[in-house]
Amino acid sequence: MLENALTGSKRYWGWIGLLSVLILVGLICYLKQLSYGLGITGMSRDVTWGFYIAQFTFLVGVAASAVMIVLPYYLHDYKSFGKLAILGEFVAVGSVIMCLLFIFADLGQPQRGFNIIFHPSPNSILFWDMIVLNGYLVINLVLSWVTLTSERKGIKPEGWWIKPLILLSIPWAISIHTVTAFIYCGLAGRSFWLTAILAPRFLASAFASGPALLILIFFIVRKFGKFEVGKEPIQKLATIAAYAMVLNVFFFLLEVFTALYSAIPEHEHHFQYLFFGLDGKHKLVPWMWIAQIFAVVALVILIVPKYRRNENLLKWGCISVFIAIWIDKGLGMVVTGFVPSPLGAVTEYWPSFPELCISLGIYALGALIVTVLYKVALTVREKAA
């Protein structure tokens, strides 16, 4: 079936060529980082997690979004999601691979990653994060390949183990973001993350940004892949994204209220740095206010039924959701945990140019994987029809 990815239009090969160039640029910068060390990044002694880990955190949520299609289809027999389930699983596959690559990029020396395999420590949250991420990747690879093979043959997926594996994928998807949240909120010295609501915040943001991204992908597939997704599943995903975005904003406001009303400096200073700056340092301030503007726009479009049913407005609503959550989790969430430090030092962080190029290369590789998988799936369905 993979041979279907080797045929396509000029537009398809142009897109593949662009992604390949971006991957090559990222690889060159990564080789430089591998030779020189993490000193070429914007990280420092005080800020030891930066753009790489922030993107990992964001993409774990995108990977978990596949459950928003799998759960209604397999547990509630929502037929409209039937032909979309495999497309959601392919997005999960690409997202998890990008997550793993961002972790390896952050390690500096990638061989260190084998320590967690050769010297496992069940007391470490990182050990369990490795288990849930790789397990989720394998589950989605197996399910998507079995489903695609069955579609090519024109039969239903066979095997007594398929339904249990599908049901297992639902709590597993929730676990990947929950365990990721535990990595942060388990660090007692980082007051910004020291909150029991961090895992629910992560899940709410995942179930908003993930469906928003899937909707945008489905619009692209409809236009360029000549595959009619249907209005009903798109509207159902938009409703899910609307509820999740409301919860995400509500949980964030709870955090802000707790920090400001308690007036505990260790909690208050992080939010002060995010929105107003601290000790003359304010690199993230404009970004966070932009995120709030996009969040409000997203809420207005997604909550009002008339706006949500308008697909032109819905596109902008989904883009707004994605940008707002990407800024919050892909910039603010991780970096602000280190600013100020437990000793009160304000050391600002900003990703360096090589760091951004490596990140762009990883995103391009993820997009290439999803593009190839979608090309195979859509071609198989076209031939089956």
Give the helices and strands, then pairings.
Elements: H1 10-36, H2 51-64, H3 67-75, H4 85-107, H5 115-118, H6 125-153, H7 162-185, H8 198-224, H9 231-262, H10 265-275, H11 285-303, H12 305-309, H13 311-335, H14 353-384
Describe the structure.
By secondary structure, this protein is mainly alpha-helical. It has one domain: Formate dehydrogenase/DMSO reductase domain (Formate dehydrogenase/DMSO reductase fold, Up-down Bundle), CATH 1.20.1630.10. 73% of the residues lie in helices and 0% in strands.
CATH homolog superfamily: Formate dehydrogenase/DMSO reductase domain
Number of helices: 14
* Unreliable runs: none
CATH topology: Formate dehydrogenase/DMSO reductase fold
User: What's the CATH architecture name?
Assistant: Up-down Bundle
Cα shape: globular
Please outline the major beta sheet.
Answer: none
Task: Give a short overview.
The chain is an all-alpha fold and 385 residues long. The chain is built from 14 helices and no strands.
What attributes characterize this protein structure?
Formate dehydrogenase/DMSO reductase fold; single chain; globular; mainly alpha
